[in-house]
Amino acid sequence: MAIGRTDSMQELITILESLYEETIIGSDVNIVKHLFYYLKADNREFEFIYEEEILIAAVEDIKTDTVVLTIPDLVEKGSRRARVRFEVMNINYQFEVAIQDIHHDQTTIRTPTELQSYQLRTNRRIPVDDLFMNFIILFRSLAGGSREVGKNLYAESRFPHLMKEIRKDRPDIKLVNLILTEAIQKVSKDYDLKFFNELEFLTETDSFLKDLLQETGKTIYIPDCNRIESYIQPTKDEFLFNFQSEFEKMKLEYGEEYTFNFFETMRKTESRDFFVSYVIAPIRLYDDVVGYLKAYSTAMDRFTIAHSQAIYIHELSEIISYAFTKGTIQYGSYETMQSTTRVVDISLDGLLFEIQDKRLFHYLKRHNIIKMFIPLRKDRTLILRGEIIRFLDRGDHFHLGVNYFSSAPDDMLYLEDFLFEKSMKILSE
């Protein structure tokens, strides 16, 4: 049965109408569609309950009467009914949905025709202006999000000591660097770990490579520097690429002769430098490419870098990127000897905090499991773990909403006392 609308619901409708092209004309089905648009635009993961099993889903596409979801772990069991559960704008929603089709990771559901169940938060959040915290990201997966967890199993079995260190709250970056160096040298003793410098002079080829990595984030693998085909022939690899797509784009813009000569000059230059094969994997800080890891073999070596070794370097670059970013967040928020992240409001269920860094804001959309350290007073620091579920762009700053899922012993009792004191102070004013 459809439910009535509260002031909070009307506020949500107004916000959604301002964000998306479609207009809500008053029917529940359009409100429901806009909720799914909200989830898709924010790249939000949410719960999909099928046969009492809780899976993680994300919106892939929204059509006239259906919604396409990405659910990697769904195994069809005969039932064609499920429930979806998520939070939008401080309101918890739950819908029963009909499954129309299941195809690999894609599940198509019929768009619910009415608002079936929603509720506001049980515990009211108390606004604060004198509370600050530190936080670090907790490991869920290298790429972030529950949907990517399965992709890390191979990497974790291949690099157990490295992954064990990275999973720590405060990984030792020097130790990580030593383990990484040893791992890279298993592929080749010849390697470069380079970070871009805006003041550094670059050759035409180096400038091309820098632009390519920063624009696409692709890992480049050239198995044979003596053959132009290795540079420009089509490949079907999921993780490793050559310059084929760049060759096609340049051919349309500059013509085939100029483009072919450009890559042939690149090949000849690398051959003169005795390169036989190489792999170049991007290094990221947050989601920005800031450098690369290049492992290569030369004419003085008696081997070429095989496909499996190139994948190995690709995986190492992802681990390096995660480790560097986690270290940067740790240093910026945890090593300054003071709490610098402002808490906007707080309750027994969760809190809203504020950051200024746009790159961090977008990174946390995928790496959204965090550990928070909140000094309530000099002798008591709360240690809470939570999941970021709300992402609000305020223009010159950003607000993120967290739901707790665990805490240190007795921390919630201290928090309850703190909230009571704050609420009494607000009432007295």
UniProtKB/TrEMBL annotation:
InterPro entries: DUF1577. It holds the Pfam family DUF1577. It comes from the Bacteria. This is PilZ domain-containing protein. It comes from Leptospira ognonensis.
